[in-house]
Specification:
Shape: globular
Transmembrane segments: 29-50, 93-114, 121-142, 148-168, 180-199, 211-229, 272-295, 340-358
Family: Belongs to the binding-protein-dependent transport system permease family. FecCD subfamily.
Number of strands: 0
Distance between the termini: 55 Å
Helix content: over 70%
Membrane topology: Multi-pass membrane protein
Organism: Streptomyces griseoloalbus
InterPro entries: ABC_BtuC-like (IPR037294), ABC_transptr_permease_BtuC (IPR000522)
Amino acid sequence: MTQAATDTSTERAVPQRKTTEPGAGRTRLAVTLLLLTALLVVSATAGLAIGSVQVPPGEVWGIVTHALGADWQDPDWSRARETIVVNVRAPRVLLGAVTGAGLAVIGTALQALVRNPLAEPYLLGVSSGASLGAVSVIVFGVTLFGPVSLSVAAFVGALGALLLVYATARTGGRITSSRLVLSGVAIAAVLTAVLDLLLLTTDRGNEARAVLAWTLGGLGGVNWGTLWLPSTALLLGVGVLMAQARNLNLLLAGEEAATTMGLDVARFRARLFVLLSLVTGVLVAAAGPIGFVGLMMPHIVRLFVGGDHRRVLPTAALGGAVFLIWADIAARTIAAPMEIPVGVLTALCGGPFFLWLMRRDARRGTDRGVA
């Protein structure tokens, strides 16, 4: 009698525990998103306040709200400070947030598409392809598509590089981690060499120097008139990827399992390759090739929200935005008045992280066929 009662209690307890797990996961996700949103607001405030001219945070918010049309505070700041915050730092901070978020979600999706934890636009040569396309437009003066010619060329270069890396790494229907990374590094080296050759042989010396600085990645020179395109690309990319989060989850189980569940893997992968190349091309055209954000953020946020892409994608976007804003703040202040390219700082952070991932995967023996 007692044993039967115990068994009955146990059977009832198990379903209760299972039903509370999704609720606990949603609570953790909500708390994580709330904290990251608050951290993003703090980071944006710091980005607007810190620089060669220091602006108190309270004054920053006064300037911002006044620029948005709110009159809750009398404008007791100088016109110069308002110009610095609104027209110089605000577009830069927003571009940093948009670029960081975009690179993070692109890296998340790429890691699922090729089932490789080391995948990200910079390492796979996608950023190099986008850079070559953009630089070709600048060097040859192509304006076929008007003001978006740079972004169109960067998209074509990114898509071509991604398809080339994927085709090179896939042998016998399989891709290993080492083969994918080596293919990406090799193709990126070739594309970079072609880019350098274009810069060395061009007659536009001033433009060549500016482009060379741009190839290191940076957020300077942005204005309100150029922010709409990367912002639109980010919204498009996040929206589509969130809608396809279930299919990205299916890919993690392997192509055969995903096909069994009704997913046309080849068509799905081809469509997302085009989307990711489009977003990468637009972001590279706006900020230059900035590496390792798409590698680090997905791995970091998975520690907090798990592997479900419905949770990873928005969390990675917020984390990438926060990270790149602070990287840009450091780039502006570490060696002031000289500015360090933000791509240099992200590489200093991402290089050791990449080596740690490789050592971890080597210990686990994960260098297996992944696609």
